[in-house]
């Protein structure tokens, strides 16, 4: 089984998309771990999809999170990755203790609505969405993506 989690220093990060980096472990092959920096810090919206793609490329089947937004949760679930939300803080060193029974320390999230609603997404995209409403475009399909937010092409 391959698992992944966002981390900040030596703990599972509080928020999935805002973590410093991600760690992927193959629990069946001792010592096989990869870490990668969070691409969304540099790539903005496009970085979120890169996170999912890297998880898929490594063959991750389970992700451990503290908090996760609805949009990212939806992406992971669509990629057939199981997502477990921790009931409290967990250090990276303790991950091995629960590898056979995540239900002891986490609840499985099975629907995007179980994630946190993104207030920032709503704020960042409300102006864009209202001006583009008549064009029937969303910020991910007809706009230029910048650092952490989208820019409508007709705003430039």
Features:
156 residues; alpha+beta; 2 domains; two-stranded antiparallel ribbon; 4 helices; globular; disordered C terminus; Di-Nase_FeMo-co_biosynth; Putative Fe-Mo cluster-binding NifX family protein; nitrogen fixation; DiNase_FeMo-co_biosyn_sf
Can you put this structure into words, describing what you see?
Keywords: Nitrogen fixation. Residues 10-86 form the Dinitrogenase iron-molybdenum cofactor biosynthesis domain. This is Putative Fe-Mo cluster-binding NifX family protein. InterPro entries: Di-Nase_FeMo-co_biosynth, DiNase_FeMo-co_biosyn_sf. The structure is a single chain. With 156 residues, the protein is α+β, with helices and mostly antiparallel strands. It folds into two domains: 2-114, Dinitrogenase iron-molybdenum cofactor biosynthesis domain (Nucleotidyltransferase, domain 5), CATH 3.30.420; 119-155, no CATH class. The chain has four helices and nine strands. The protein has helices spanning 40-43, 45-58, 70-78, 119-132; strands at residues 2-8, 11-12, 21-26, 33-37, 62-65, 82-86, 106-109, 144-145, 150-151. The strands form two sheets. Strands 1, 2, 3, 4, 5, 6 and 7 form a seven-stranded mixed sheet that branches. β3 (21-26) and β4 (33-37) form a beta hairpin. It is globular, with a radius of gyration of 17 Å.
> Could you state the CATH homologous superfamily of the largest domain?
Dinitrogenase iron-molybdenum cofactor biosynthesis domain
Q: What is the CA-atom radius of gyration, in angstroms?
A: 17 Å
Count of all domains? 2
Q: Secondary-structure element sequence? A: EEEEHHEHEEHEE
The biggest sheet, with number of strands, parallel, antiparallel or mixed sense and barrel status, is: 7 strands, mixed
Instruction: State the separation between the terminal residues, measured CA to CA.
Output: 47 Å
**Count of individual beta strands:** 9
Stretches with pLDDT under 50, minimum 5 residues: 134-156
Principal-axis shape? globular
The CATH topology assignment of the largest domain is Nucleotidyltransferase, domain 5
Strand content: 15-25%
